[in-house]
Amino acid sequence: MLQFKSVTKQDGAKLRKYYKTCGYGLCEYSVGTKLMWRSTLHPAWAETAGCLVVRNCINGRIVFDYPVPGPEGDEDAALEAIESCCMEQGIPPVISVVPECKAARLLARYPYVRVSDVRTWRDYVYYREDLQLFAGRRYSGQRNHINKFRSKWPDAEFRPLSTGDQAAIETFWAEYEAEFPKGDNAKARDELKLAQGMLRMVDKPWFVSGGMFDGERLIALSLAEKCADTLIIHIEKALYSYTGVYPTLVQAFADAFGTGCRWINREDDAADRGLRTSKLQYGPAKLAPKYCFEPQNELFSHVKVLPVLKTERLVLSALEERDIPAYNALVLDGDRNRWWGYDDVGGLGAPVEERSFFEVAQRDFENRQAANFAVRLDGALIGEAVLYRFDCRGGAELGCRIDGAYAGHGYGTEAFAAVADWALYQVHLSRVVAKCFRENQASYKMLSSCMRKSGEDETFYYFEKLV
C-alpha cells in the first residue's frame, strides 16, 4: 500500500531527485508547481518501484500525476500501485496531467477510458533560442519593445538574484502591488501572494532566479526550474511603468539560464484572456497537452441492469426487498463468514440497520463498483455471488458464499461458474480472479474445479480464469 506524505518545502530535495531528469516537459512535474500551488492541489507524494508517485486532491477529487521514474524505475509497477490503492479506497484511478509521450501507454493499458485534454491546462512551450534571440520577422514587435526599453533605460541590467537581494525584492512587491492592474481580481491577488512566497526561496538549489535592475531598483524578476531539457518559468513579474521590460526580461532570462535546455515552458494561461494573448504573441512552438485519463470498469459500458442467470438447479438475480431477512442472516453468520475475507459490519461505518447490507449492495451497483447476485434455490435466497474489485484493466475479483444449511451440495461451484462465465463473455472481462484462505479446503476444492491456480502466499491461494 502506498504511504503518502503531504508535500512541504522540506521535501523539495527528494522530489527534485526525480524532477531534475524528468523529460515530460510539463510544469506540474516540478518542485515549484507543487510548492506554489499546494493550497489548490493538496499534493502528497510516495515512492514505489523506483518511481515518484504524486496524489493530488482537487476540489475534493483524488487524481494522480503520471509516475516519474528514477534510473531504475518501473512505471508499470508504479501504475499498479496506484490502481491497487484506488481499489482499496473504492475510487477510480484517475491519472491526470499525462504528458503526450505517455498517452499511448495508458490507452493500451485501459480497455475502457475517458480521455480529456482541456485547452486551459495546456502549457506554452517555446524553443529556447526563439526567446533568447527573438530572431526573424515574427519577433519584430518584441525587438521593438526591447529597443525602446534600452533607449529609455540604457543602464538597466539583468543579474541573478540571491538572498542578499531580499530587501530589493520586498520593495519590488510593494511597487508592483501599487500599480497592479488586477487588484480587484481575487484570483489574481491570490496568485500574487503565492508568487511572493516563492521568491523567498531564491536560495534553494532547485531554482534559478534573476531580475532586471534600474540602478539599485529591481524592476522585473523571474524564477524558474530546470527539468531535463526544459526550463520551466514559475514566476515572471515586472513593473508596468517600465515599457518594454517584459520582453527584455524574457530574453535576458533565457540567455542567462537557458544553457543546456531545448525548451522554455512558460506554463498555462489560467483562462486569462490577457495572459493568453501575451503568451501567444511570443510564438510558442507548441501548446503542450495535459491529458486526463479516467479509466472505467466494464460494468459502466455493458451492464445497465443485473441479468437473470440460470444453471441446472439455481437462479441468480439481483437482490430484492423480499430477500432482506435471508440476506441479513447470510451476512451476519459469523461462523461461515470467517472465510469471507471482508468485514461487512465494519465496512458499514455505522450501526447495523435492517436495510443496511441491502442498500450497500444497491449502492455498489449504482456506482458500478460491484455486482451482487442473489443465489436462489426454488426462489429462496441461499447465498450470494459478488463480482467486485474491478482493476479497470479487464480484470475483477469474484467471491461466493452459501448459507450453511445448503453447504456441501455443490451450489457454490454452480453459482460461481455461472457468474464467472457471465463476467468473461457478457461483461467482456479478460480475467476473473478469486482467492481463498489456505485453511478453507472446501473453497479450495470449489475454486480448483472451475479456475486455474495462479499463486499462493502465507494467507491465501489465488486462482484465475481467462477468456
Please tell me about this protein's structure.
The mean pLDDT is 95. Helix 7 crosses helix 10 and helix 17 (411-425) packs across helix 18. The protein is 36% helix and 27% strand. The chain has three domains: 5-122, Gcn5-related N-acetyltransferase (GNAT) (Aminopeptidase); 124-267, Aminopeptidase (3-Layer(aba) Sandwich); 298-466, Gcn5-related N-acetyltransferase (GNAT) (Aminopeptidase, 3-Layer(aba) Sandwich). It is of the alpha+beta class and 467 residues long. It is built from 18 helices and 23 strands. Helix 17 links the parallel strand 20 (395-402) and strand 21 (431-437). Strands 1, 2, 3, 4, 5, 6, 7 and 15 form an eight-stranded mixed beta sheet that branches. It has an eight-stranded mixed beta sheet with strand order 16-17-18-19-20-21-23-22, sandwiched between helices. The protein has a seven-stranded mixed beta sheet with strand order 9-10-11-12-13-8-14, with helices on both faces.
List keywords for this structure.
Aminopeptidase; alpha+beta; eight-stranded mixed sheet; 36% helix; 18 helices; 23 strands; 27% strand; 467 residues
Largest sheet: 8 strands, mixed
Rg from C-alpha positions?
29 Å
Structural domain count: 3
Find the count of extended strands (DSSP E, 2+ residues): 23
Helical fraction equals: 25-40%
Termini Cα gap: 29 Å
Q: Helices and strands: which structural class?
A: alpha+beta
From the spread of the alpha carbons, the general shape counts as elongated
Q: What is the CATH homologous superfamily assignment of the largest domain? A: Gcn5-related N-acetyltransferase (GNAT)
Oligomeric assembly: single chain
Low confidence ranges: none
Provide the CATH top-level class of the largest domain. Alpha Beta
Write the CATH architecture name of the largest domain.
Answer: 3-Layer(aba) Sandwich
